[in-house]
Amino acid sequence: MGGACLYGTGVDLLSLTRFASLLARSRASAAVSSPHARLGRSERLARRILCDEELADWQRLEARHDRVRWLACRWAAKEAAYKALSPPFQISWHDLMLRSASSGRPRLSLSASGTRGALGQFLPPGLRWHVSLSHDAGLVIAMVHLEQPGA
Q1: Which of 15, 56, 95, 146 could form a disulfide with 8 if both were Cys (CB 3.0 to 4.6 A apart)?
Q2: How confident is the model at residue 108, as a pLDDT?
Q3: Structure pTM?
Q4: What are the residue boundaries of the structural domains of the chain, listed by start?
């Protein structure tokens, strides 16, 4: 019996300063007629990139600094996953979910909408997601490895 084989790898590096600037720009570019126009800039971006479960987790965070870093980690992890899945699969921000295990270790998986959608139907069965996140000195890095069980 063979071991697992590498299906894809993706890495994303994100500057927290640039990410905070993105949050600032998202407020300036929000259309007045937008249904989310009254929401704060980070709230609008959170709704754009987080699945429902992640959004509930994010809304429970209290400190602004923690919320920006937390959101940046999800952005970087999803960008890295996109790179690991490309080119055969196009994904939506809402297709993936990053949660923490009880140990605190990050877990990346398909969200409910990702499982129901085309991505969930066409990914190889048994695909394992491995994610590593780190943040220091104003940077966030995410690495995603996708592993397919061997034959």
Answers
A1: 146
A2: 94
A3: 0.84
A4: 5-148
Count of beta carbons in the 10 Å neighbourhood of residue 133: 20
5-148: in CATH 3.20.20.60: no
Name the token pair of 25: 């720009």
Which candidate, 115, 117, 105, 96, places its Cα nearest to that of 53? Answer: 96
**Residue listed under structure tokens 């929000």:** 30
Is residue 119 within 8 Å of 110, Cβ to Cβ?
yes
pLDDT tens readout for residues 62-106: 776 678 899 999 999 999 999 999 877 778 899 999 999 999 899
What is each CA distance from 81 to 26, 101, 109, 147, in whole angstroms?
Answer: 23, 18, 10, 12
Closest Cα to residue 131, out of 62, 84, 66? 84
> Is the link from the previous residue into 88 a cis peptide, with omega within 30 of 0?
no
Both tokens of residue 122? 């066409």
DSSP string, 5-51: EEEEEEEEEEEHHHHHHHHHHHHHT--TTSTTTTS-HHHHHHHHH--
Give residue 45's identity as a one-letter amino acid code.
L
Q: Give the helix/strand (H/E) hosting 130.
A: strand 128-136
